[in-house]
Design a protein that fits this description.
7 helices, single chain, mainly alpha, 0% strand
Length: 177
């Protein structure tokens, strides 16, 4: 354990500033953008399988209710996880309460947007609209990653799309079991 901890400060972790980035921007990214991005990614991707499985098994109403329950449960879980994992004093990532609220809120939004098409009674139409909404969500995530995390847009689109497709396939397979 000692060799793992060699060189680690006992106070705050000071991350090197990226070229052209000031402290205010770094604080914004660490304390607001990153917690929001984590929540948005988790909410968008983790709720796909239960929503799509419910749609294929039981129709639009079930998918809507499973989607809302999944989004709420994931929001609570992610908010608590972010808030309880770090009080900010060691990493400089800011208030645990604000990070938890940001992460939980973003998780809820990410999980809710693609559940809302299931307000449409016809499951085939609702699924089509949900797929379009998911595509928009994944592009939005990729754009935020490009803007604030300096990830190339093409790389980000491939990464988030792969994650979304993998989880969607799980939902479709379970929904057809």
């Amino acid at each position: 354990m000692a060799c793992i901890m060699d060189g680690v400060s006992e106070t705050a972790v000071h991350l090197p500033a990226a070229a052209g980035r000031d402290d205010a921007h770094r604080r914004l990214v660490l304390q607001r953008i990153q917690p929001g991005l984590v929540g948005l990614i988790d909410g968008t991707i983790s709720t796909l399988a239960p929503i799509f499985a419910a749609a294929y098994l039981a129709g639009s109403r079930a998918a809507l209710l499973v989607g809302l329950a999944s989004a709420l449960g994931a929001a609570i879980s992610m908010g608590l996880s972010e808030g309880l994992s770090d009080d900010g004093s060691v990493t400089g990532r800011g208030s645990s309460l604000s990070r938890g609220v940001i992460t939980g809120g973003a998780t809820f939004l990410g999980g809710t947007f693609h559940a809302l098409p299931f307000l449409i009674g016809d499951v085939t139409t609702a699924l089509f609209v949900a797929y379009v909404v998911v595509a928009c969500e994944l592009v939005a995530i990729a754009l935020v990653r490009k803007r604030f995390m300096d990830v190339a847009l093409r790389v980000s689109l491939v990464q988030v799309t792969l994650g979304g497709v993998l989880v969607s396939v799980v939902g479709i397979l379970v929904g057809h079991a």
